[in-house]
UniProtKB/TrEMBL annotation:
Pfam families: Acyl-CoA_dh_1, Acyl-CoA_dh_M. It comes from Acinetobacter silvestris. Belongs to the acyl-CoA dehydrogenase family. This is Acyl-CoA dehydrogenase. Its cofactor is FAD. Residues 129-224 form the Acyl-CoA oxidase/dehydrogenase middle domain. Keywords: FAD, Flavoprotein, Oxidoreductase. The keyword Oxidoreductase applies. GO terms for molecular function: acyl-CoA dehydrogenase activity; flavin adenine dinucleotide binding.
Length: 399
């Protein structure tokens, strides 16, 4: 694995960096205060991203998981890597605005992970949110109670989903539901439900600590009729494979959330170094144990950040090269989510009154960072998944 960013993505990253500084940062505070207001400035930006995606070197949250176990041994740096690197730069600008970007929803990753070829073509260009969490079953995706009952050429969905990112704005919602509660998690499938489908209702938008620019919805499904063709992937219940097919989605999205955390932490680190530039050795010539407390804290955070960045790159590189990356995706997400919280809060602390007021974005980045250690699986869930992979235990053997 090459530890440097692939040169072929440099133009994309330069554009994303400039966008972060010149488009996202200037409107960051505006939409933090105007919660639930749609950032109209993103429409033009989304069109630009669409053009880059069509050219093959773009940033698209629907980065394809591909089929694991391919015998092709050549090294690839593809859409998973470019997406993660682009996300880092965009969240360097604003995490909430990145999550609000049209046609870049996390539901697109679910479609890419398990959809068949016909579905990939049919849902191309849609903006898909992802609805997993339910009241009473937050981190345990296998405990989903929303049902999908076959009725002729349709499925009828009944249930409630909460904390759906872009749930009101997206064109469609990828809904996780069970075909048969008696069969447990093996019967859970994902369905693409277009916006406006009869029986689907936005119940409320949540008021949140951070990422206020992004809408987070609670959605109910009451006798919601969805075409059977909108069930992603294979409709057959495979007891042997169990939940693995649906969970491939997370192998794709967790590195992207890790990338968000890396980008948010990068913004805080750079700002705190700028504030205290006269107190730091720019060439790192001073031995660590001889530096000031302030300098040692910043140097330690830089090391933690670099570790999180490299773990994120590894997880995305494995996805591009069709290697099973469930363990590495969880490691990257756990590390990046945790250190992003630590770095952003420490930067507020070190900057004292400067970091705590709204004249600076440091306090906003600290608030935004908390969700990055929660959604797509909490810190504790990631550690549990890593332990299962390390010990070769199933979910029933290690809870």
């Amino acid at each position: 694995m090459n530890l440097q960013n692939p040169k072929k993505f440099q133009m994309l990253l330069d554009q994303a960096h400039e966008t972060a500084l010149n488009v996202l940062r200037p409107i960051s505070r505006k939409y933090d205060k105007a919660e639930h207001a749609y950032p109209k400035e993103l429409n033009m930006l989304a069109s630009l991203l669409d053009g880059m995606n069509d050219g093959g070197d773009g940033m698209n949250a629907g980065a394809a998981v591909n089929k694991r176990g391919d015998t092709d041994s050549s090294n690839k740096n593809g859409v998973n890597m470019s997406t993660a690197l682009g996300v880092i730069e965009m969240c360097y600008g604003d995490t909430g605005l990145l999550l609000s970007m049209p046609r870049q929803g996390l539901g697109n990753s679910a479609i890419a992970a398990v959809a068949n070829d016909e579905q990939l073509e049919r849902f191309k260009g849609t903006w898909a949110a992802m609805a997993i969490t339910e009241p009473g079953c937050g981190s345990d995706s296998a405990a989903i109670r929303t049902t999908a009952i076959k009725d002729g050429d349709d499925y009828i969905l009944n249930g409630e989903k909460i904390f759906v990112t872009s749930g009101e704005r997206a064109d469609s919602v990828v809904v996780w539901a069970t075909l048969d509660k008696k069969l447990g998690k093996a019967a859970i499938k994902s369905f693409v439900v277009p916006k406006g489908t009869l029986g689907m209702k936005i119940e409320r938008l949540e008021h949140k600590l951070g990422i206020k620019a992004s809408d987070t919805a609670a959605i109910s499904f009451i006798d919601c009729r969805v075409p059977a063709a909108n069930l992603l992937g294979n409709p057959e219940i495979d007891i042997a494979k169990g939940f693995a097919g649906v969970m491939e989605t997370f192998d794709n999205t967790r590195p992207l959330v890790a990338a968000m955390a890396v980008g948010c932490a990068k913004a805080s680190l750079e700002r705190i170094k700028e504030i205290f530039k006269d107190s730091l050795d720019p060439d790192y010539n001073t031995p660590y144990l001889q530096t000031s407390y302030l300098a040692s804290q910043i140097y330690r955070m830089e090391a933690e950040w670099e570790a999180a960045r490299l773990l994120t790159m590894k997880a995305t590189w494995m996805a591009d090269n069709r290697k099973p990356n469930s363990r590495e995706a969880s490691i990257a997400k756990a590390k990046a989510g945790r250190i992003c919280n630590e770095i952003t809060l420490k930067c507020v602390e070190l900057a004292a009154s400067v970091g705590y007021n709204e004249d600076e974005l440091l306090e906003k980045w600290a608030r935004d960072s908390k969700i990055l250690d929660i959604f797509e699986g909490t810190q504790q869930i990631q550690q549990l998944i890593i332990a299962r992979r390390e010990l070769g235990k199933s979910s029933s053997e290690l809870k």
